[in-house]
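Q: A reviewer asked whether we had any structural model of the full assembly, not just the individual parts. We don't, so I'm hoping you can provide one. Inputs are below.
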Amino acid sequence: MQLADIKKLALLARIQVPDEELEAVANDMDSILGYIDQIQKVSADTERTIPTLINRVREDEVTTETGEYTEALLSQAPGRDGNFVKVKKIL
Amino acid sequence: MTIDLPTLTIEKAHSSLMNKEFTVRELVDAYRAVISEKNGTINAYLEIFTDLDEQIAHSEEMFTNGTATAMTGIPMAIKDNILINGHIASASSKILANHVAVYDATVIKILREQGAIFLGRTNMDEFAMGSSTQTSAFGVTRNPRDESRVPGGSSGGSAAAVAADMALVALGTETCGSVRQPASFCGLVGLKPTYGALSRSGLIAMGNSLDQPAPFTKTVAESEIIFNLLSKYDSLDAMSVPDENRSPNSELRTPKKIGVPRNFLNQGGIDPRVLENFEMRLEQLKKAGYEIVDLDMPELEYSLAVYYIIMPAEVSTNLSRFDGIRYGFSAQGKDLLDVYMKSRGEGFGKEARRRILLGTYVLSHGYYDAYYNKAVILRDKITRAVAKAFETVDLIATPTTPTPAFKLGEKMNDPVAMYLCDIFSAPANLAGVPSIAIPSGKTEDGLPLSFQFMAPHFREDLLFAVGKEFEHGV
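A: Here is a predicted structure for the entire assembly that you could use as a starting point for your response.
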């Protein structure tokens, strides 16, 4: 893999990879791809078995009190303003 | 009285608690004493909980009012990726270092109702990614059987806690061998239940189509007690199998015929001591009346490669939720994208980053068909090959791991060498069938060796039946 490929993947995955680590990451990826590429020698001539699908969605019922978890969850937000999670300006 | 922890089991502890030979507090104190002495070196626990007094009081009350069950007062170690309400669950990652669970995982809820004691949370490979507990953001865990070696992983802390008598039993999680492999390295019994048997609700997800909570115990009978308690339908896990669909595939009660996938064993790279021990144990099984047959299952040979496509794909999707916005580690950045990039870049360790990138790659336009799609089809082939094998045999046997426990620091610079530790684990996770790892002896220098059985879906009973005979020397 080229260093440019790693940079592109890192951007897609939203993970900053420091420049000095790019080469090591590329080497690791090459070695892992070298291993998993053994599947290219295996024939996948069979169709995938499609299982019988069953709807397992639960009824949309409210099971908690309003505000029951608000404090527990919001207190873990890195940035907070009252009952809002604070983020960087988007527009 | 002095409690003999190395020989203590759930059954013995329960009977002693019932007969008032010792109290829950005395039992917990016995484990606390070992923890104070050993955890500094072993680093099995990241935290010992401070609410033990309340937990003890609850359990003792159950003994007083006659509602105590087999698990009441049993001191357990819990892997750091299983949520316990009010406690930190960090998956041994910097990105979740201070993350506090706001609810109980279903398995924790059941155990809490039974009055089990949660001593603390245990170290693991970051986000359960690894086979040696060396990728934790909070230091390595040492193998209590030989402190210069790894305990295996990813549930290495839970395994080390039981092996060092710092807990009676423990919970870990399996995605591909993360309980059976450390059980093997630490000389314990590790059970990977049928996918869909135990609820995944409240587990920090790694590979959703593979994850299962899984127990560590010293004996097969204890594994059975924990499995029978935790194996039940849960509406909070969409892949939990309804109770009516769990009936056995046949009338068979006692397994008789064991298949050995020979080609899988002869692929090279397996420690001769492991192979010798495996053959010796097979011979014993034969003498005890089991029929041993060879299986031709070429599909198993590429199961680890298939796993290393499906799992990273699921990892890259799952771990996208850690963004530095709602909870967890957050880095300063100049704009929103910069906050994401830096929070994730600095918050995730090397192996987690590697697997997210790999998953992003195999799912990306242009490579999706060659990797992910093909792996899904091959997984299906593996699943069918396993099902077909179970038409002719009751169980499949292999060694649990290709080598005994290796030295700390080994394989850390060679990801593929590390991945190969789980070569024998992958088939059961991909096919969703249950599998048990059982101690099978030791090398000349005292390192534990392990034997693995796989059974058809929801036939854990067959694993327990053969396992109980096996651990008593067949």
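A: Points you may want to mention in the reply: Chain B touches chain A through 56 residues (CB under 8 Å). Chain B is about 40% helix and 15% strand.
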